Amino acid sequence: MPTPPPRRPSTRTRPAKPPLSERAVVDAGLRVLRREGLDAVTMRKVAAELDTGPASLYVYVAQREELLRLMLDAVVATVPLPELPADPPGNWRERLAGLITDVIHALNSHPGIGRVSLGSIPAGPAWLDLFDRILGLLLAGGVDRQRAAWGCDLIALHIGAVTYEVSAAATAAGDGAGALQDALEHRHARASIEERLAGLDPVRHPHLASSTAELSSGPAASRLALGIEVLINGLAADCR
User: What pTM was estimated for this model as a whole?
Assistant: First the structure.
């Protein structure tokens, strides 16, 4: 019996690619975001991350804007939602403040993704779950339904503004709290705010000039907590 010819070595130099899916595309987009920033998240770059061509992504994601919305929703979905308080509502303010803080930190761990929530109303499942719970907490605390509904919009705008500041600072992605502190320090360094405040005319700007230490001091976490406290207490001004 003749000896069979030797088999040619496989030309494959790497493991088989995992199958594509919507989740795989979203995860690849988040990796590009964390490595290069939001503006770098293009269909071409995400396809390269998955070792495929851009055309293959359109089976799962219609366009870049849809991909960004899916990425936003994927990040929001990582935040646990607190239970609604029993009657009497008790610590509903603390639960709401903690939830808003957790969302901001989650978004700041992916600098830039919070910008996707600005300019249009997100409607992904996780975003809707989040704001249904926020509305539920406000209502549990006795906030008027109309006031609570508008309050959801104010809270969404606050989340977007805080996370936009982190992305504008162009800091490296870290944990959410660290990203926020880095953004605060970067803003102060970039604007040389201490020098500007020190040079204020105390006659023209007496209140600013006498508050220079307070204006430029304090950790980002304390500033964030104050903003959330003012929002919640303002919405619940007539509540117990």
Answer: 0.82
